[in-house]
Write a structure and sequence with these properties.
With about 230 residues, the chain is an alpha/beta fold. It has one domain (about 10-225): 3-Layer(aba) Sandwich (Rossmann fold), CATH 3.40.50. About 45% of the residues lie in helices and about 20% in strands. It has a seven-stranded mixed β-sheet, sandwiched between helices. Helix 1 (about 20-35) crosses helix 7 (about 185-200), helix 3 packs antiparallel against helix 7 (about 185-200) and helix 4 (about 105-110) runs parallel beside helix 6 (about 140-160). This is PIG-L deacetylase family protein.
């Protein structure tokens, strides 16, 4: 298996983020390098990360989180996502927000929910990516596994078989240097990745050190269906 890779100006890169912040944590360096090359980049946020009660309780100093509270939190996280993408060099229209249920992607995948899959198929067919950047199926977070499964089913329905690079976030014992494709970041790219992570202010109140630690010297991706 190769240990490094390159992008080209001809690439059309579609990044799937189960929640706002995954785009920066998992592939903030890759997005920067794709943009610098002139490749087209599209970032799909599958949920708004609105079912995120503990940071919301801390920030808003409230215990009960109802539907209106979650909607307000999700809207705030969309704004943070847009700022993150701008920091990484992307315009506002490079983002798509599906607004699917946070903590519900596995259920939607298991049900093969028609509307959810239609959203995914439409994005794939409209953007016509040459490369997908997706959450790993080995991630411990159920939304990340559900995201991966939804993408595979959507590709099947769209009649596509695309190369995929998977990023892994929620798996503490995984050693990223042990396997996969390594993308090395310059000091400038590392700093911009950190700045993009810091755009997600709602997530830093309780987890600042953990989040900022993702601004490493490299990003590692697990390839599948390589061409």
């Amino acid at each position: 298996m190769p240990t490094s890779f390159t992008l080209s100006p001809q690439d059309r890169v579609m990044v799937f983020a189960p929640h706002p912040d995954d785009e920066a944590l998992g592939c903030g360096g890759l997005i920067q390098q794709a943009v610098a090359l002139g490749a087209q980049v599209r970032v799909v946020f599958q949920t708004d990360g609105d079912n995120n009660p503990w940071p919301q309780r801390y920030v808003e100093q409230r215990w009960k989180i109802d539907a209106a509270c979650r909607q307000r939190w999700g809207a705030r996280r969309r704004v943070e996502a847009a700022r993150s993408l701008q920091t990484l060099g992307l315009p506002a229209d490079a983002a798509a927000f599906f607004g699917l249920p946070d903590q519900g992607l596995t259920r939607l995948s298991q049900q093969k929910d028609a509307r959810t899959l239609e959203l995914h198929v439409s994005e794939l067919q409209t953007f016509r990516p040459t490369l997908l950047v997706v959450p790993s199926q080995d991630d411990n977070h159920p939304d990340h596994v559900g995201s991966y499964d939804l993408i595979q089913e959507a590709m099947r329905r769209a009649g596509m078989d695309l190369p995929q690079w998977a990023y892994l976030i929620h798996r503490r014992w995984f050693c990223p240097e042990a396997a996969g494709l390594t993308l090395h970041l310059s000091l400038h790219q590392k700093a911009r990745k950190l700045a993009a992570i810091e755009c997600h202010e709602t997530q830093l109140f309780l987890s600042s050190s953990r989040f900022c630690a993702y601004a490493r010297d490299s990003e590692v991706f697990i390839p599948s269906n390589p061409t």
